[in-house]
Amino acid sequence: MHQDSSVAFADRLTQVAAAVEDALAGFLAPAAREGEIARPERLMAAMRHAVLGGGKRLRPFLVIETARLLGRDTGDVMQAACAVEMLHCYSLVHDDLPAMDDDDLRRGQPTVHIAFDEATAILAGDALLTLAFELAAGPAEPDDCGVHLDLVRGLARAAGLGGMVGGQVLDLAAEGRYGDAPPGEAGIETLQAMKTGALLAFSVEAGAILGRATVDQRRALVAYGQAIGAAFQIADDVLDREADAAAMGKRTAKDADKGKGTLVDILGLPAARARRDAIAATAIAALSCFGPEADILRDAARFTVERRV
């Protein structure tokens, strides 16, 4: 990424992250929202611990910037962006549990089950998941109902059995928990497309839905999002081998410790980096039907492969 472009992108990412943080804090305020009876203090503290004060906010950034590319910059875009981020954070809370990856550090802080307890962590994840769908469903004017139905359906598919949850099952199987043979290259690509790629890809598609993209625009943006998701996971695997835990804010080399193969293991680091960069180039090429207004998304693809944390 050119230095000037890199600085502009970093500034925009920071700006959007701050706006998303403020919106998330509002949705996770202690006072009960309309239709709620009460918000238990301990549960809210655990949810806020899971969500606030950290993270790149790349997924909500992709929602917001894709919608903005299409001329949509309204409150429902931010609400949908927060829905995607809450769902992502729920997945991290559950992923960190002893029954899953058994991690004690996330974003440089104790994981939720360490800071609170396992039962609270499970319930905090459940609450974030369900709140995410509430946010994705509205607010909506009568003529927006189809848009928000599309959002809810897409979020469910990205998060569910054919997406993130299914990918987590494949991830556990890859550790040998169920007696399965280690996955080959195709199996790892499927696992990663589901566990990590599906929600990243939907973040772009959510922006396309909110921006009322044409069929051709949506097809191009979906292709871009799928490539971003694939490149992001390979970049994560490379960082897991090259970065230290202090820089990452979480334990590194986890997959190697558990004997779980990644594309880095199969391809080797140089070839994995080359695959990562080629997929990012594919993402950028998918935006060819858009003009310079899409440069922020092109820079997001470059950021995905150049990031160091």
UniProtKB/TrEMBL annotation:
It comes from Chelatococcus asaccharovorans. Keywords: Isoprene biosynthesis, Magnesium, Metal-binding, Transferase. Coiled coil: none annotated. Belongs to the FPP/GGPP synthase family. PANTHER family: FARNESYL DIPHOSPHATE SYNTHASE. CDD domains: Trans_IPPS_HT. Its cofactor is Mg(2+). Signal peptide: none annotated. GO terms for cellular component: cytoplasm. This is Probable farnesyl diphosphate synthase. GO terms for biological process: terpenoid biosynthetic process.
